[in-house]
Amino acid sequence: MYHLGECVLIKNGFFASQEAKDLAEGKNIINFKPVGVVIKTPTNNDDFISKEESGEEYDMIDNYHIKLNNSPFISNIVTYISEDDLIKYVIDN
Predict the structure, then answer these.
(1) Is 11 helix (H, G, I), strand (E, B) or coil?
(2) 3-state helix vs strand vs coil in the chain, percent to 5
(3) 8: left (phi over 0), alpha (psi -120 to 50) or beta
(4) Which of 45, 66, 70, 93 is the right S-S partner for 78, CB 3.0 to 4.6 Å?
(5) CA-based Rg of the chain, rounded to a whole angstrom?
(6) Which residues contact 64 (CB under 8 A, 6 or more apart)?
(7) Which residue ranges make up each domain of the chain?
């Protein structure tokens, strides 16, 4: 389990793909890594949020949300990432 504010690397999915790296390079972000901090963790019921609870029109899966440190995308927030798609990351200074 990851905690709020913990630094993580997204290791699976689109943000870890070559396509995402190519998009980043197109925006002058060299050596893009999908690294960020956890800004939302799953609730106690981490598999499901009802539409009544979320206020959305449909039921949702409740997972992690990550704020990327450097993003080539309009938003730097990645939503609905599972624990299996993350790995703890230490930034070298």
Answers:
(1) coil
(2) 20, 25, 55
(3) beta
(4) 66
(5) 14
(6) 2, 8, 38, 40, 41, 42, 80, 81, 82, 83, 86
(7) 7-88
Which residue is it, tokens 């703890």? 88
User: What pLDDT band is residue 42 in, cutting at 50, 70 and 90?
Assistant: confident
Place of tokens 């009802």: 50
- pLDDT at res. 31: 92
DSSP structural state of residue 86? E
Burial of 64 (0-12, 13-18, 19+ CB in 10 A): buried
Q: How far is CA 46 from CA 49, 54, 89, in A?
A: 8, 13, 23
Average pLDDT over residues 5-33: 95
- The DSSP 8-state label assigned to residue 47 in this structure reads T
Pairing of strands 86-88, 77-81: unpaired
